[in-house]
Specification:
Order of helices and strands: EEEEHEEHEHHHEHEHEEH
Number of helices: 8
CATH superfamily: P-loop containing nucleotide triphosphate hydrolases
Distance between the termini: 7 Å
Bound molecules: adenosine-5'-triphosphate
Length: 237
């Protein structure tokens, strides 16, 4: 049996702008297997970010359902959703969102501390080493390159041991070499720490690094990429 860690059912998100209805998502059945690395591509305005926000519990749908790790997000209240976001999901955005006054180590462990949990120092060090940031622990974000800052943001997303990582154009501010470096490391880290990744990108070359590419247009999936290479665990099951 397939094991879907993310499953949306007839997902719709409509925005009313005066007389006009913007159908950002228009009946989307988006499926991701456990530990899969999926790239979502599509033109500007096709609904990619909206989809990611729904899956990450950052926004609520107009209609339809979102299941993550067997739980229906629609059935969660505000507090449950906040806990879900803190524990189940790691977000990586285009602009890194690092706190400028905290050093890299402090930035990376901040979400765990804010969640009132004990920091697993050894795990944090392991991730930093994995992402080639061991030498930058004491550095403030401002002196790091874009690629290093994004790797720190990825370390921060992974350190709370979420089941899924949601990355919205994480290479949008990086050059080609840094982009490939960051996504290559993200992929290896996700494998190492057994996480599922959904990556939004405009960049076809970057998308090729994923296990599967899903293409969306006008709030609908137009290509599921099922012919693409599957992750080894899915082949085994
Ligand atoms: N809060 C909002 N109010 C009104 N319309 C919105 C809102 N958020 C998104 N939209 C519209 O929904 C559609 C999908 O937006 P979305 O940001 O998901 O697209 P995208 O594929 O991520 O685009 P991009 O690649 O440019 O980031 C667009 O037409 C956008 O203008």
């Amino acid at each position: 049996m397939e094991s879907w860690i993310i499953r949306t059912k007839n997902l719709k998100k409509y925005y009313q702008l005066g007389e006009h209805t913007v159908k950002a998502l228009d009946g989307m059945d988006f499926l991701v297997r456990e530990r899969e690395f999926v790239a979502v591509i599509g033109t500007s305005g096709s609904g990619k970010s909206t989809l990611l926000h729904m899956v990450g519990g950052l926004d609520v749908p107009t209609e339809g359902e979102v299941y993550v790790d067997g739980r229906n997000l629609n059935e969660m209240n505000k507090e449950q959703l906040a806990v879900f976001r803190r524990r189940k999901v790691g977000f990586v955005f285009q602009n890194y969102n690092l706190v400028p006054d905290l050093n890299i180590y402090e930035n990376v462990v901040l979400p765990v501390e804010l969640d009132g949990r004990r920091v697993d120092r050894e795990f944090a060090e392991e991730i930093l080493e994995f992402l080639k940031l061991s030498g930058k622990k004491e550095a403030l974000p401002g002196i790091l390159s874009g690629g290093q800052q994004q790797r720190a943001a990825i370390a921060r997303a992974i350190v709370s041991k979420p089941a899924i990582l949601l990355a919205d154009e994480p290479t949008g501010n990086l050059d080609t070499a840094a982009s490939h470096d960051v996504i290559g490391l993200l992929k290896m880290a996700a494998k190492q720490f057994q996480q599922t990744v959904v990556l939004i990108t405009h960049d076809n070359d970057i998308a090729q690094l994923a296990d599967r590419i899903v293409r969306i247009e006008d709030g609908r999936i137009v290509e599921r990429g099922e012919h693409e290479r599957r992750p080894s665990h899915a082949e085994e099951s």
